[in-house]
Design a protein that fits this description.
Distance between the termini of chain C: 72 Å
Structural class of chain C: alpha+beta
CATH class of the largest domain in chain C: Alpha Beta
Strand content of chain C: 15-25%
CATH superfamily of the largest domain in chain C: Aldehyde oxidase/xanthine dehydrogenase, molybdopterin binding domain
Mean pLDDT of chain C: 96
Low-confidence stretches of chain C: 1-7
Chains: A alpha+beta (332), B alpha+beta (243), C alpha+beta (748)
Structural class of chain B: alpha+beta
Helix content of chain B: 40-55%
Helix content of chain C: 25-40%
Largest sheet of chain C: 7 strands, mixed
Shape of chain B: globular
Oligomer: heterotrimer
Mean pLDDT of chain B: 73
Number of helices of chain C: 20
Order of helices and strands of chain B: HHHHHEEHEEEHHHH
Number of helices of chain B: 10
Shape of chain C: globular
CATH architecture of the largest domain in chain B: Roll
Low-confidence stretches of chain B: 1-87
CATH topology of the largest domain in chain C: Aldehyde Oxidoreductase, domain 4
Strand content of chain B: 5-15%
Distance between the termini of chain B: 54 Å
Number of strands of chain B: 5
CATH class of the largest domain in chain B: Alpha Beta
Radius of gyration of chain C: 26 Å
């Protein structure tokens, strides 16, 4: 690991100032991803600003919804009564990821900034446009089983690995950030970027901005939201594909729908086209299949991941069917 | 004692062999038992020679054992020197509170909690299996929560209450989980075991999230020996007795 | 404490606590990375980035204090630059020609781990590339000749009867091809050693290993020193599974070379997990082709089998892995005409090596999948076809070995079916699966596994075990057999306690140290209990007999009498010692040239049944229930034995459904535990283990070997169950969801 200096931030302003003024400085939250990447030589900050003592851990009810502090651990969020009641998809998504130990360490803010598990990105002996812009993509001609089928570019086909973010994308979450120029809010769906020509820029967060909270707007039908993850073993594995879904069904007809996919793109993939198909349609198998088709329309698989297209379609149909079934049960 | 005396007597093996032969004269008592005491027992003589003349390793062996003593005495200057970086990076003061005792340390920022425990404090029970948060062998409790100490910067845990496998038993009395792991043979090679037990201790405290099984709640600790069923039986027994 | 009742109670067969259990649950057990010495340096290995080439120049990057580093290249080797094992083809360090990615070229040592890692990355090589080959097909086709004259490390031919004559008489001829992938052992403790070496003192190595005398032999050649100058000590070992059979010779040599160059300063090398995964051995990938002749009554007439394994870049253990795979290729069946052609071939990947089962899981997978196919063609159930062909006492195996023990495969099959409700489920699932997206299936495999070294191996080894008794009556067992979690120490103590009729707690097992223990052979091949355990029993009996012959001990005695006798013996004569050396059981004959005869002293016999679900929507396959029934002779320790079976089955489940080594230019690409997937607690079903006990006359208390057996049957049983669930025959492992999807979509 490259040597670095360590600074413990005393408050938000101090943290932001330190990173803004520091040379090649990064915030340190749970460290589960950043420290791992530092050990591999992928991340090489000269300074870490430890924000773990900041008062950003609270999970609280607001008139508009739920506000989750950026330093709340993944475990705290997943097990929080209000989250489980109002936004079960978020709890399920978090519990579907990583291990209990990692969930105890990892923070909400850190999870938003999680970096890809692309083999070639993590191994510094390979060219990688994300790690070394302009060096080339090793995954496109290489082994790309776990790579993107939607929204990729000829510069990068990596996928975002987070489960939590898929749920947040479906829930219309808002990311609250603080920076030298003041506070601002970024909708989760606009927080992450597609790779385009600049895969090294993964989010619209500026380097000196600090994530302080995530807001979940009230949504009555989010109470019956669900997460489905398909992976290579039962636990402690990244998604091949995953789906977060919420449906508002009245008398067999879908009033509103939220659908997001994980493991398929450079960002958590909100399936707006599929939501259009669902909205106003009957909650039946035909509709769900049509939604799945819409969600995967334009999918461009690589040599080793064509199966993910079909897998994603099937996962969508299965989860929508289950949510619709439960919604009916809940309404009855 | 005996070896020490023989060490100087290079090439004097027959002498020692003779002494043993008088002591161990017996007849073959099973088909497979071959008397190796005759002069043509080539394999035996080769082995004896080795036993008697292996002076080379002895000094090193003593060194090895002297380390054991120091490891339990905690951070000696020599131990620090061996692992200290020469990067000339400034160190920072970090006080780790481990198993109820404070350890004031001067650490480089990049020292992991796992390495601080193992190499600076001398508590080697927590294991390094992958160093990437992928196997769970390094699991310790921090303020009661199980974490992967290999991904935890020590500096970040300044003042936190750390519990390692060494802090679980009360004197000679094993923690119920430790006793249950022995009873149910919840391990084979033992390398993942401290992490398994600490993870189980965290699980008992945290509880398993609704809708998840103990099997799922222990999936952060990989056991390649495949002792999972013994591990789960041990945990269930202790969970049961607590309930 | 002790009394008459105690001493008459048999310990063999009882679940006594593990000898090292307390140390392991308290964190007190010391593994190699838990040890440190004064003045110790850390060592690192600089490896090749390319799979094949010629080194033109070694470059040291700027900005590092290179004069502070100990640097070792092939030119620094005092003896011979080869890892002595079977052949002498593998160098410790590349001098000129690189033959696989990650091959060691240069060694570095420094007191600062962080600086060392920086330096490791700063050494680069100017290499003239040569064309590599990566698959066994390319090797067989001689696309490039990369080893010897024909890329072939070893070939065997087994002939029984005359298979050429059966094809004309056959009612059915069934062919099939089966493949298995590489599998990483993934012991949780990475490879590691500490070495102290200089010309005066010689070489001493402590480390994580299965076979101290293998390391001893290799260091002997590397340093060209007399054998008493080499000392190898096993420290607590965090799993091996074969992965620490031959590889520790390499890392031990490297650390010792660094220490030697550093004038005797201790050097520690511990592999990083990724390094351990990319650079060390894995299970041999295999391809097996079957051509089988059967008559209309469902009797096997002839089997022609071609078995090929990919050995990687150097010979290492490939010839013996091939041997075990070959001998097990025709299984526990009575077939009059058999021909097996087997080859181990070279490719430019890191050498493949020992992994539990040692070739047998590969060839048994092929056979047990193939026989389900044969049964289908013949029109019999998989069970009925096997029943008509099982081997019995007095019949011969493929190598012509006459089975002299009672074998009851039909009985095992019947009991396994009873335990799993196999017949009813077979029918019920088939009916219920219709139209369901979650399909269930049940399948089985029947197989055997030979214990001990193949053929004349044990005779060549001439293993020795010692026992010594002190004045306090404590008995120390001296053997090079290592405790690696499988229970060596506990089992040896049980065997000795019963042989001597004294308290179990009076027996201790010496730390394997080549200066203190005789060579009881390597800890491999399911030989520790059966072969070495028998020597333990004999050596222990030797102690008793000495005391009784000298009149110090009566025929009937208590533990207290034993103590008193030992005290008097030590007072009068000194330390009481006894040694025992292997002698083959009577009537064992093996013809290495013809590859015929008694391949193993004894076999364990087994039937494993797997129940699976296959999710037809997500293509996830899961093992829901697993019954492992085996006849292994007398079970010395029921809990440890069950643990061995559970562990082997867990690894077999991984081998079958999860563990996929992804190769990129001859290098393992998925070298992390997040992308090389092995089972967690959530993936393993309750594994139900049952034993039949048919005491083996030449095993200690009647025991046979069991360590490798459970690796053999899982893969075919699971794939047979998946075929039952889905109607699709899969003939390769690992079977990942995408392969399921492809096949199911094609048949849909």
């Amino acid at each position: 690991m490259n040597p670095f200096t360590y600074k413990r931030a005393t408050d938000e302003a101090d943290a932001v100032r330190e990173v803004a003024n520091g040379k090649n400085a990064k915030f340190l939250g749970g460290g589960t991803n950043l420290v791992d990447l530092m050990k591999m030589g992928v991340e090489t900050p000269d300074e870490l600003v430890d924000i773990n003592r900041l008062a950003l851990k609270r999970i609280e009810q607001t008139p508009q919804g739920l506000r989750i502090g950026a330093l709340a651990s993944n475990s705290e969020v997943a097990n929080h009564r209000l989250v489980r009641e109002q936004f079960p998809v978020l709890s399920e998504a978090i519990l579907a990821g990583a291990s209990p130990q990692l969930r105890n360490m990892a923070t909400v803010g850190g999870n938003l900034l999680q970096r890809t598990r692309c083999y070639y990105f993590m191994d510094t002996s390979f060219p990688c446009n994300k790690r070394v812009p302009g060096s080339g993509c090793s995954a496109i001609p290489g082994f790309n089983r776990i790579h993107a089928i939607l929204g990729a570019s000829d510069k990068c086909i990596a996928v975002h690995p987070s489960d939590m973010c898929v749920a947040l994308a479906a829930l219309d979450a808002i990311v609250r950030v603080a920076g030298p120029a003041g506070a601002r809010q970024i909708p989760l769906v606009d927080f992450h970027r597609l790779p385009g020509d600049t895969p090294q820029i993964e989010t619209n967060l500026r380097p000196d901005e600090l994530i302080v909270a995530v807001d979940l707007p009230n949504s009555p039908f989010a109470r019956r939201s669900r997460y489905l993850k398909i992976r290579d073993r039962a636990q402690y594995a990244f998604a091949l594909v995953s789906v977060a879904a919420a449906l508002d069904v009245q008398q067999g007809r879908i009033n509103a729908a939220r659908l997001a996919l994980g493991g398929v793109a450079h960002k958590p993939w909100r399936a707006l086209d599929a939501e259009k198909v669902l909205t106003g349609a009957r909650a039946d198998a035909q509709t769900f299949r049509a939604a799945a088709e819409a969600a995967l329309k334009g999918a461009q698989p690589q040599q080793h991941n064509a199966f993910k297209v079909e897998l994603a379609r099937r996962a969508i149909v299965r989860l929508l069917t289950e949510v619709a079934h439960e919604t009916k049960g809940g309404a009855a | 004692m005996k070896r020490k005396k023989d060490r100087g007597a290079k090439g004097n093996a027959p002498d020692a062999a003779e002494r043993e032969s008088s002591a161990a004269e017996h007849e073959s008592c099973a088909d497979e038992l071959i008397q190796l005491l005759s002069e043509d027992g080539a394999a035996r003589r080769r082995f004896l020679k080795q036993t008697l003349l292996a002076g080379g390793g002895l000094a090193a062996a003593n060194l090895l054992f002297s380390y054991h003593a120091r490891a339990s005495a905690h951070t000696s200057a020599a131990a620090d020197a061996a692992a200290a970086p020469s990067n000339k990076l400034s160190t920072i003061p970090v006080t780790l509170r481990v198993n109820g005792r404070d350890y004031p340390l001067q650490l480089e920022p990049q020292v992991m909690l796992l390495d601080a425990l193992r190499e600076r404090i001398g508590l080697t029970g927590s294991k390094k299996g992958c160093d990437r948060g992928q196997c769970g062998a390094c699991t310790v409790l921090a303020d009661g929560h199980r974490i992967n100490s290999c991904l935890a910067l020590a500096a970040s845990y300044d003042g936190a209450e750390i519990t390692t496998i060494e802090g679980l038993a009360r004197g000679d009395e094993l923690h119920p989980l430790q006793a249950a792991f022995i009873k149910h043979d919840g391990f084979q090679c033992g390398y993942c075991t401290p992490g398994q037990i600490m993870s189980a201790a965290g699980l008992l405290r945290e509880g398993c999230p609704t809708g998840m099984t103990v099997r799922e709640c222990m999936s952060g600790n990989i056991c390649r020996c495949g002792a999972y069923n013994g591990i789960l039986a041990a945990i269930e027994e202790v969970r049961g007795s607590k309930a | 404490m002790s009394n008459q009742t105690d001493t008459q109670t048999k310990i063999v067969g009882k679940p006594v606590p593990r000898k090292e259990g307390r140390a392991k649950v308290t964190g007190a057990a010391r593994y190699i990375d838990d040890l440190r010495m004064d003045g110790m340096l850390y060592g690192a290995t600089v490896r090749s980035a390319v799979p094949r080439g010629r080194i033109r120049e070694i470059k040291f990057g700027a900005g590092l204090p290179w004069d502070e580093f100990v640097v070792v290249t092939a030119a620094d080797i005092p003896g011979e630059n080869c890892v002595a094992l079977i052949l002498l083809d593998q160098p410790y360090l590349v001098a000129k020609f690189i033959n696989h990615a990650e091959e060691p070229i240069l060694l570095l040592a420094h007191a600062d781990k962080h600086l060392l890692e920086k330096a490791r990355r700063a050494v680069t090589f100017d290499v003239e590339p040569l064309s590599p080959i990566f698959t066994l097909e390319e090797s067989l086709a001689k696309k490039e000749i990369i080893w010897g004259e024909d890329n072939i490390f070893k070939s065997y031919q087994v002939n029984k009867g005359n298979v050429d004559e059966v094809w004309a008489q056959a009612d059915f001829i069934i062919e099939g091809e089966y493949r298995t992938g590489a599998q990483e052992q993934l012991y949780i403790e990475p490879n590691g050693v500490i070495a102290v070496a200089n010309a005066d003192a010689g070489v001493t190595v402590w480390g994580s290993m299965q076979c101290p005398y293998y390391v001893h032999k290799a260091l002997l050649k590397l340093f060209a020193l007399p054998e008493e100058k080499i000392r190898v000590i096993q420290t607590e070992t965090g799993g091996g599974f074969g992965g620490k059979e031959e590889y520790p010779s390499m890392i031990a040599g490297h650390a010792a070379l660094l220490s030697w160059k550093a004038g005797g300063r201790p050097v520690k090398i511990i592999y990083d997990r990724a390094e351990d995964m990319v650079a060390t051995t894995k299970r041999h990938p295999s391809r097996t082709r079957h051509r089988t002749a059967v008559n209309k009554d469902g009797k096997l007439l002839g089997m022609e089998i071609e078995f090929v394994i990919d050995g990687g870049a150097y010979a290492t253990l490939s010839s013996v892995v091939l041997s075990r795979g070959t001998i097990h290729a025709a299984g526990p069946y009575n077939c009059p005409n058999v021909r097996i052609n087997a080859h181990a071939v070279a490719t430019n990947v890191p050498p493949h090596g020992a992994f539990r089962g040692f070739g047998a899981p590969q060839s048994i997978f092929a056979l047990e999948r193939h026989l389900d196919k044969v049964a289908q063609v013949v029109g019999l159930s998989p069970a009925e076809f096997r029943r008509r062909n099982f081997i019995h006492e007095g019949e011969t195996t493929a190598t012509g070995q006459v089975i002299r023990e009672p074998v009851d495969m039909e009985g095992l099959l019947a009991r396994a079916f009873e335990l799993t409700d196999y017949q009813a489920k077979r029918e019920r699932f088939a009916r219920a699966n219709e139209g369901r997206s979650l399909k269930r299936g049940i399948g089985f495999a029947s197989f055997m596994h030979g214990a001990g070294f193949t053929g004349s191996g044990e005779v060549y080894l001439q293993s020795i075990v010692g026992a010594e008794a002190g004045a306090d009556g404590r008995v120390r067992l001296l053997a090079a057999s290592t405790e690696i979690g499988q229970g060596t120490n506990t089992i040896f103590a049980q065997i000795a306690a019963d042989a001597l009729q004294i308290d179990f707690d009076l027996i201790e097992v010496a730390q394997p140290d080549t200066s203190n223990v005789p060579n009881s052979g390597p800890t491999v091949a399911s030989r520790t209990t059966m072969i070495v355990g028998k020597l333990v029993e004999s050596a222990a009996l030797g102690l008793k007999q000495t005391l009784q012959n000298s009149g110090l001990l009566k025929a009937n005695y208590t533990t207290d009498d034993w103590r008193a006798a030992c005290r008097r013996h030590v007072e009068q004569f000194g330390l009481l010692k006894s040694f025992s050396q292997y002698k083959p059981p009577p009537g064992i004959n093996w013809d290495e040239g013809k590859y015929q005869g008694d391949a193993y002293g004894a076999y364990a016999w087994a039937v494993y049944v797997a129940e699976v679900t296959v999710d037809m929507l997500t293509y996830e396959a899961r093992v829901e229930d697993f019954v492992a029934l085996q006849e292994v002779g007398k079970v010395v320790h029921p809990v440890l034995a069950a643990g061995q079976i559970e562990g082997g089955v867990a690894q077999a489940i991984g081998f079958t459904l999860y563990e996929n080594v992804v190769w990129s230019e001859g290098r393992m690409l998925n070298n992390q535990m997040t992308n090389y997937i092995i089972p967690t607690s959530a993936d393993i079903p309750p594994i139900r283990v049952y034993f039949e006990e048919q005491p083996y006359a030449y095993g200690p208390a009647g025991a046979k070997g069991i360590g490798e057996l459970p690796m053999d049957g899982g893969a075919p049983a699971i794939l047979n169950a998946i075929e039952h669930a889905t109607g699709v025959a899969f003939n390769h492992v690992p079977l990942l969801p995408e392969a399921l999807m492809q096949a199911l979509n094609q048949t849909a």
